[in-house]
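re: ur question from the group chat, yeah i did fold both. here u go
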Amino acid sequence: MTGPITRINPPQLHATPGYHHITVVEAGRTAYLAGQVPLDPAGELVGPGDLDAQIDQVAANALAALNAVGAGPEHVVRSVIYVVCAGEPVLGAAWRSLNSSVIGPAFTTASTLLGVTQLGFSGQLVEVDLTAALPG
């Protein structure tokens, strides 16, 4: 059984927009999800050029993957978000959209947000990589 998940923001570190600097998990089972991408069940890219549509699909895919191992967004202990963009406004918008999505609680944990020039599929704008501490 996985022990409690503790999220910490030390007072010596800067304030965050919702995530925690440190996540501690007692020994237990861990799931490492492959990067969740904006492909539908048929393998087709959803929302070419539409970041919000792609975020909705990525969130739905991530939720399905978490549910497949008996977990939910609240069990996520680490996230890495990749967004194709050239500037901070797009990154901020992606962060806000993901936080208000069906997997929003996943981003209260240790999290990294990166702007990149390209992802694996032509037209892909976002990808989310999650690690979860599985419940008992």
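okk and heres the other one u asked abt
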Amino acid sequence: MNLPNKITIARVLIIPLFMIFLLAPLPLGDMTILNDTLPTAHFIAALIFIIASMTDWVDGYLARKYNLVTNFGKFLDPLADKLLVTAALVSLVQIGLAPAWIVIVILSREFAVTGIRLVAASEGSVIAASDIAKWKTTVQLIAIILLLLHNIPFTALSIPLADLFLWAALVLTILSGWDYFVKNKHVVLKSK
């Protein structure tokens, strides 16, 4: 068990802590940021999410730099990412900060692409993330962070930045999903 894999496992293990701060009725009160009120627990959840998201970059960087790429890491890293994003998006729906239909579209694409990757892997091929998929992930993470922070400080400026990023994530999700299917239709058609 090398360091990048331990970091990836830590990302999975931090998810319940993130969800406790976001969903449990913790008596932490509210905080005021630029005349906007934010539950302190949501602020802590946002910090946990940011740290967890950064570990994705750290484990990948260390694995490549020190030649520590393993099959276990190739399997667990994208799974950890999907678990973290799924936990965040579903929780945001539960607390009323994200529309369920957008989350359903985003998660459906994640499951579909994972399915294609599993079929390709069973045939000995690896489907790397495309550039548009990398942009999709970045925009998703920014949208989630802004939603966790209740769009503060942009609410004071009357800029719905969290919503704009969520819509951008939706568009990139659809485009990247289409891109995966078009580029890898041979994998799907071959498996019939």
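fwiw on the second one: The beta strands are 30-33, 36-39. The chain is about 75% helix and 5% strand. idk if thats what u expected
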